[in-house]
């Protein structure tokens, strides 16, 4: 004869078997109750005090402050470097006194060697008047008449800083306002008019 029964003690449930006529009772298994509460791990030191866990360490605060200063310094440096550069276009007319008496439109320099400074200045003044009056565009005049190789870009020299151009050219360009055209400027290359574009 075989029977079985369950008995619950506390949070544990015992399963018994009843074997034979003599009433022998044998325990053959123990089952934990499904309703037994799970033990929670003890709270850690970091989570026991939420105020302490939210505090930043001195090292992390210093690192953040250093990062902020580095970013501010980099931004300031970028602004300073961009403020030290200008952009301009120009028209150059060479003459007998130019240090290099040849250009893209006069490779042998025949015309340049027969052009006086006064003649070059007169030609450039007439071209400037046409630009200022609106009869012609600066880039079109530069492309046609300028002795500089920048003529193929409408006279555009791109951005440049101090010390990159001849001194009279540099000083005049930095003194101009954006969109303003200079008077005649003399350099060792010849005579110029300059349009500041940036």
UniProtKB/TrEMBL annotation:
Pfam families for the chain: Rotamase (PF00639)
Keyword Isomerase among record annotations: yes
Source taxon at top rank: Eukaryota
Keywords on record: Isomerase, Rotamase
Residues of the PpiC domain: 83-198
Regions of compositional bias (Basic and acidic residues) in chain numbering: 49-63
Composition bias, Basic residues: 64-79, 92-102
GO CC field: cytosol; nucleus
Region called Disordered, residue ranges: 28-105
Catalytic activity field: [protein]-peptidylproline (omega=180) = [protein]-peptidylproline (omega=0)
SUPFAM superfamilies linked: FKBP-like
E.C. designation(s): 5.2.1.8
GO MF annotation list: peptidyl-prolyl cis-trans isomerase activity
InterPro entries with a match to the protein in the record: PPIase_dom_sf (IPR046357), PPIase_Pin1 (IPR051370), PPIase_PpiC (IPR000297)
Record function comment: Prolyl cis/trans isomerase with specificity for phospho-Ser-Pro bonds.
Family according to the record: Belongs to the PpiC/parvulin rotamase family.
Name of this protein: Peptidyl-prolyl cis-trans isomerase
């Amino acid at each position: 004869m075989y029977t079985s029964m369950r008995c619950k003690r506390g949070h544990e449930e015992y399963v018994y078997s009843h074997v034979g006529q003599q009433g022998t009772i044998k325990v053959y298994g123990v089952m934990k109750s499904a309703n037994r509460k799970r033990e929670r791990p003890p709270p850690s030191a970091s989570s026991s005090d939420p105020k302490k866990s939210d505090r930043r360490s001195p090292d992390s605060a210093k690192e953040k402050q250093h990062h902020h200063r580095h970013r501010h310094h980099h931004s300031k440096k970028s602004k300073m470097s961009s403020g030290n550069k200008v952009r301009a276009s120009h028209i150059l007319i060479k003459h007998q006194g130019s240090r290099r008496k040849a250009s893209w439109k006069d490779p042998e320099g025949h015309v340049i060697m027969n052009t006086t400074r006064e003649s070059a200045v007169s030609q450039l003044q007439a071209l400037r008047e046409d630009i200022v009056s609106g009869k012609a565009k600066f880039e079109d005049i530069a492309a046609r008449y300028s002795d500089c190789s920048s003529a193929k870009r409408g006279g555009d020299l791109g951005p440049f800083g101090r010390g990159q151009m001849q001194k009279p050219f540099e000083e005049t360009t930095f003194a101009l306002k954006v969109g303003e055209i200079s008077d005649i400027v003399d350099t060792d290359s010849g005579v110029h008019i300059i349009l500041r574009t940036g």
